[in-house]
Amino acid sequence: xxxxxxxxxxxxxxxxxRAKWRRAExxxxxxxxxxxxxxWRVPFRDGPWFGALPTLTAAAGAxxxxxxxxxxxSPNFRHPVTLAKELISLDDVSGGRITLGIGAGGSGFDAxxxxxxxxxxxxxxxxxxxxxxxxxxxxxxxxVSHRGAFYSADGARNIPGCVQRPRLPFxxxxxxxxxxxxxxxxxxxxxxxxxxxxxxxxxxxxSEAALRGQIERLGEACAEAGRDAAELGKVxxxxxxxxxxxPLESVEAFVDFAGRHRELGFTEIAVHWPIPGTGFTADQxxxxxxxxxxxxxxG
Length: 299
Fold this sequence. Notes:
Elements: E1 2-6, H1 17-26, E2 31-34, H2 52-62, E3 67-73, H3 80-93, E4 98-102, H4 121-140, E5 143-147, E6 152-157, E7 170-173, H5 177-186, E8 189-192, H6 204-224, E9 233-237, H7 251-264, E10 268-272, H8 284-297
Helix pairs in contact: 2-3, 3-4, 4-5, 5-6, 7-8
């Protein structure tokens, strides 16, 4: 089991931002992720919110060992050609420490920021099904041409490619069958937040049953793709299950939570860096104890 964190891009770099990323490395987190949005939900929508890839570039210069990544990037406002160029540059700056969390996106937050109508669930899935394979090619081939229903490339050059070979890893966020198939074919890891229908009214036991079902369906998708599901990391983004923030109230509570989810098959849990006065409120001292002690107590 690995423990990672998610640092929301809400702080000016020289007014607390840099310090958080450096502290995350000092605490021993496996990966520090950030969200890739143009804006996000209340209470963050009308407050400071910085770009994910510039933030990760700065974090790469402020850290040495910790992996860095998005959780997650989506087609909502990204194009595979420009994204690939930025990712190759970021992978180079970081010395090969980047993981791309990638998902189909949603209908809120920044889905209409470029002036378009929100895409239907089917259109999001259709776009994602074209986006991921094209991005895979762009990150592994020197020159790519493609004419698709949604995305095109005309001799797009991406030399010298990623530091990580054959490319930087994808952590594919998915719960539906099409997304699961993409994770099985292109992912080095799979990401879930659980079953959103259970967040407000479900129980931890119901959530664990739903997560068990998701992992089983991922296994079926891997079998269909001729791949061993054990090859994929399985990442739970904490904070969106019925447990809420309760696992961050003590080291013991987190060890219990992590142990139960390790038994389901998860290999990594990502916890949000505390932000007072938000849904990610947590005692900083307890959070840091969890970071340094919890995984060792799992046995």
